[in-house]
Amino acid sequence: MEKTLVICKPDAVERGLVGEIIGRFEHKGLAILASDLRLLDSEVLGHHYSEHTEKPFFGDLVAFMSRSPAMLLVVGGPEGTVGVVRTLMGATDPTQAAPGTIRGDFGLAVTENLVHGSDAVESALREIGMFFPELGAGV
Question: Which CATH architecture has domain 2-133?
Answer without folding.
Answer: 2-Layer Sandwich (3.30)
